[in-house]
């Protein structure tokens, strides 16, 4: 029986790296040919169509990204970029254009073996192409209909992007306000990726104490610091083969961002208190509800780490940007509660109208919580007049704060903070998110202003601004959300 040997083309003018890669590929059963320039590489493609192209980005006669335009997508050749500087803009652009993966030089044989293993797992599924297609489509429908809900055009675009990026190895940066579904999207990308049988590990970078975060991420050896009474495996080790979800990544201490970047670039790390390099095989999905560019300007996020994470940015729309989905989501949550309690409660058309006209600063999370409370408090029908009498007028009010020229910046800060707190119904976490500051900063400011100031500012807000209030149900106290 004839044996099929997969073929690789290596386009790189670095002879040492090319020879090493050729040897590693030979061990994986690949034949390979080396080209030292773009021109030579394109000639080789014409001579023998490869299954894989490993291509250096910076070649003497141009950028390796030219292969993306020169190769017919129907040929299904996978392009893997080679780069010694993975954070440079061109690498980011090339990945966006459709590279299967990239490898940092010098190439680690573990990374290469993992890549080949993933390719083989695609190939074996492809032998039954129809079945694979059917399974994949079913899986997609399930995720989009049963988990991430929404039919609006912005959500359709989001689904399309998730489908495209999920099976690749690209890092994804999820941007969106609190409660828009970033974690849900991260889980979906993992579930639709080739890593889905391996762990999905979420790490809230804002919630771990700065003293512990390094040991949580990289692990530590027994005795490496006071209290380290046993060896501890960090997130990188525990997520091996899977996906690490770095939530609130901008909250990560800046010194740790340097270390994280190093790990992402080299694919290797060390536990605290150890000299032994451990190789990592994790895909990174990061998320933030802040504007990364503002965070970079404010020295909170390193530019080089941002470039490394921002290979494929995905913006999750706020609920008010997809008003069409509000009713669908509200109805879905109501159905969930009805099923769980064997009831048949319904939403009145007027209540739907109120839900549609509210601006939902806490997005889908706020809508779900609201529906749950409305469900509990209603008998058979959730009526609009169950909402506080003032709410329905206030929800359409303009979100403005009148500040006379001549006000000091410190005063503007103070007014804005209290007005935002007011807008968020006193929920400090939400107010901090809206203001784009950390919860800790918000607490510090409130402490600085003191109780008297708070009272004064509150009075001013009530008099000078027309600020929408969160939806409230009568007699319901949501201060526990603080
Ligand atoms: N499109 C959606 N369809 C169904 N449920 C959703 C959707 N978006 C969010 N949710 C639900 O809303 C809640 C909040 O979602 P999630 O935790 O993913 O938000 P987030 O953007 O990570 O928020 P935060 O920035 O506060 O961490 C979860 O219960 C989630 O299941
Ligand atoms: Mg989250």
Describe the structure.
The protein is α/β, with parallel strands linked by helices and 482 residues long. Strand 6 (78-83), helix 4 and strand 7 form a beta-alpha-beta unit. The chain is globular. The protein folds into four domains: 7-126, 3-Layer(aba) Sandwich (Rossmann fold); 129-315, Rossmann fold (3-Layer(aba) Sandwich), CATH 3.40.50.300; 319-396, Helicase, Ruva Protein, domain 3, CATH 1.10.8; 409-464, Arc Repressor Mutant, subunit A. Strands 2-1-3-6-7 form a five-stranded parallel sheet, sandwiched between helices. A five-stranded parallel sheet has the order 9-12-15-8-16. A two-stranded antiparallel sheet has the order 4-5. The protein has helices at residues 15-27, 38-47, 66-70, 89-96, 109-126, 129-147, 153-165, 182-191, 210-218, 235-238, 254-266, 292-297, 303-309, 324-341, 349-357, 363-377, 391-394, 409-423, 428-435, 439-464, and strands at 7-11, 31-35, 52-56, 58-59, 62-63, 78-83, 101-104, 172-175, 200-204, 219-220, 232-233, 243-247, 268-269, 278-279, 283-288, 312-315, 346-347, 381-382. It binds adenosine-5'-triphosphate and magnesium ion (MG). Adenosine-5'-triphosphate (ATP) binds next to helix 8 and helix 16.
Give the names of the bound compounds: adenosine-5'-triphosphate, magnesium ion
Q: Average pLDDT, to the nearest integer?
A: 78
CATH superfamily of the largest domain: P-loop containing nucleotide triphosphate hydrolases
What is the second-level CATH architecture of the largest domain?
3-Layer(aba) Sandwich
Total separate domains: 4
